[in-house]
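The following record pairs a protein chain with its ligand, adenosine-5'-triphosphate.
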Amino acid sequence: MSDSAPTPESSRRGLILINTGPGKGKTTAALGTAFRAAGNGMRVLFLQFLKGSWHYGELDAAQALNAALTPALGTALTPDPSPPSAPPAQHFVIKQLGRGFVKVGGAETDPEDIRLVEEAWAESAAAILSGEWDLVVLDEINYAIGYKMLDPDAVADVLRRKPEMVHVILTGRNAHPLLIELADTVTEMREVKHAYQKGILAQRGIEF
Ligand code: ATP
Ligand code: MG
């Protein structure tokens, strides 16, 4: 920021943010924050729940940015004869967990989807608690909770125990009241209009 002093170290703290509501922009706002954090040298892990069947442009952008920010991942001009045994700390990682949007309705939900969400949650909780990432995004996690595939109490428990400096963003419609209560910043996207209502299908670069 150019118009105010940088945040003093003593007042730095990790926030819990929620992007919810029916309007467009929940995931893309989280991506924007992730981009901003990466530019500040922060390590960003962006975990996408319930996605996996589409190829999103952000996956390629993240890979390019990660390689640029993590020199050991970039194309080395002279190959290092003695590569380090530990992998380099990565800076901007987006991972798709799950296999695309699932059917709504507790009883009809495929047990395989529930298993994938449980696995995704285990990975998310470990990443948040590890302190290895400065920002962890749980994209579409609100849907997994809304479809009763994930217990909001378990999510709240991990958020309460997270390392102090770690930021967490949760996205998806119908955020659970317990998580809204726990969050520091909650934004509800309101739909004014959406191209979809005119029959315009998802556009490359805007929707995926
Ligand atoms: P985006 O990824 O574009 O930021 P989002 O995260 O707010 O969208 P989701 O609920 O995750 O929205 O839905 C993902 C897809 O649904 C996107 O392709 C998005 O454009 C589309 N979408 C979002 N809001 C609406 C809406 N109000 N009507 C129709 N389609 C929508
Ligand atoms: Mg989304």
